[in-house]
Specification:
This protein is an alpha/beta fold and about 280 residues long. Helix content is about 40%, strand content about 15%. It has one domain: P-loop containing nucleotide triphosphate hydrolases (Rossmann fold). The longest helix is centred in the N-terminal third of the chain and has 17 residues.
């Protein structure tokens, strides 16, 4: 862990003067917040998410039940919320340099961890339009996907599922999507997100994004979020991949941080005190 952090800092220090980041499009100022009654009614209309405990165990979602196994995700949740509140961030993208970094699994665990924050309303939206990652992990079936919502072929409420009354999931249905990059960079997508925000007034929106090295989908969309959290896989993601990912993301939005995932060996400084639980 210390070597990873030191290498990241060294890479930053060795950079030449960075280019000016691309200008981020100004999002329209939000209108008046909907009344509490209207927001509550919108959330109540969402279909309930039904999940299997066996499925959650099989897909490694310990945050579903909480407890000691959920502690790392609870810690990540809390640190994420602290940064979001400090900086006034609401839209957070989860990105990774390549596939199999555990990004969708982390998104699902964060969702269930956030559900225990009863004063918060959050959304977790699967914006990897080429895959149905969250749908598979949570064992769901949906007639519509997020691409249908973004193209205005379906309403968000038609395919969203709500858990615990305060977490809304936006799924993909596994259908092949034509031109996902063009969908994500369309002004219509920004408009739809603003409409969802106006209707449901979520405190936090998490976007499960495609791998950076897989396509240009992220580059088409990241200007629509407030920040991005970069997830990397221990023993798989190289330092050069981390550095390039951080550079690319920083050109488009704020970098919230880097999460080392799939780490099998932790020192006492970074581990969890199991006896406390």
């Amino acid at each position: 862990m210390e070597r990873l952090q030191a290498a990241i800092e060294k890479a930053r220090a060795q950079r030449t003067e960075p280019e000016s980041p691309a200008p981020r499009p100004e999002r329209p100022r939000p209108g008046p917040r909907p009344s509490a009654a209207a927001t509550a009614e919108a959330w109540d209309k969402l279909s309930e998410l039904q999940v299997s405990r066996i499925q959650m165990h099989r897909m490694r979602i310990p945050a579903y039940e909480g407890g000691i196994e959920s502690a790392p995700y609870d810690m990540l949740r809390t640190r994420m919320l602290l940064q979001a509140r400090k900086n006034g961030w609401r839209r957070i993208a989860l990105v990774s340099p390549h596939s199999r970094c555990g990004k969708s699994t982390t998104a699902a665990n964060l969702a269930f961890s956030l559900s225990r924050q009863r004063d918060l309303h959050c959304m977790v939206l699967d914006f990897d339009l080429r895959r149905a990652g969250l749908t598979t992990i949570l064992g769901q079936h949906s007639a519509f996907g997020m691409a249908d919502v973004l193209e205005r072929n379906a309403e968000f409420a038609e395919q969203a599922r709500c858990y615990s009354g305060n977490i809304a999931f936006g799924f993909n249905n596994g259908a092949k999507v034509r031109n996902p990059s063009e969908i994500l960079q369309s002004p219509r997508t920004a408009e739809v997100l603003d409409e969802i925000t106006a209707t449901y007034a979520p405190d936090i929106m998490l976007f499960d994004m495609p791998p950076l090295m897989a396509s240009d989908d992220n580059f088409a969309f990241l200007q629509n979020v407030d920040c991005a959290l970069i997830l990397v896989a221990a023993e798989k993601t190289t330092m050069s991949q981390i550095d390039v990912a951080e550079r690319n993301v920083a050109e488009l939005t704020n970098v919230m941080g880097i999460v080392l995932n799939k780490c099998r060996y932790m020192t006492g400084a970074h581990g969890t005190e199991y006896d406390y639980y």
